[in-house]
Design brief:
Layout (H helix, E strand, L loop, with lengths): L5 H4 L25 E4 L6 H8 L3 H7 L14 E4 L5 H5 L39 E3 L2 E3 L2 E3 L2 E4 L5 E3 L4 E9 L3 E7 L4 E11 L6 E2 L4 E5 L9 E8 L2 E3 L25
Antiparallel strand pairs: 1-2, 3-6, 4-5, 6-13, 7-12, 8-9, 8-11, 9-10, 10-12, 10-13, 13-14
Helix pairs in contact: 2-3
Amino acid sequence: MRALRPAAFGLLVLAGPMLASATGHQATASAGPSRVHEVKQGDTLGALAKRYGVTVAAIVAANRLPGPGVLLKLGQRLVIPRAASAAVAAAHVPPDGMPPAPRVPGGIVLSVPDFDDAPLEFAWPAEGPVTSTYGRRRSGWHRGIDIKAELGTPVLAAAPGVVIRSGVEPLYGRVLKIEHDQGFVTVYAHNDQNLVEAGDRVVAGETIATVGRTGRATTYHVHFEIKRDGKNYNPLYLLPLPPRIAQVDETDENPPDE
């Protein structure tokens, strides 16, 4: 199954409150008139920012969106600030009573990936619902997703590559890291057993580990990350549909922010 590209993915709402439309909201920028764009098939915040010559942050601020990683809804109306006022919108201060947006640690990318080249195709590393999503959590920042599965369930390589790490880490427990083409690296953590060693070549779908709860985890699951050039991306933007989202609960796992 082909991984869904960001342009198509932008039409889905996975979780969270319905996105606010521009109707009833005025642009926070004041230096010049703004435009209103009605979201059409294929629109993403990144694509709209490029089209209108503004930043994603300016669009987010002008529409009081939760953040740059929100998914757009077909027919949603967005205020697009003029380029001259984009800096004002991006610097928008939340109204009284609203907490400021949390600082995003370096290396965590919240926006929909907008790679210059066609990204590598990934497959799900395990069968099961996603019980903890990517991004901000009460206990910190989550750099991947947690896929719930029974003890001993096979963990599969999400794409072909070379194993660059097979060992034990304090938080991740038994962990595997695989390097792929185009600078991508995938991470599989809390394994009960690692079945491959550093230097091994693997193919997509090959069993590389079994699900466990080693390290800092209280439930059986595989913690899965997708990285490129040192930056973490939301795996749900790069995995095939459907996204199997269960009730989102936090595990004890809390990888370091940095």
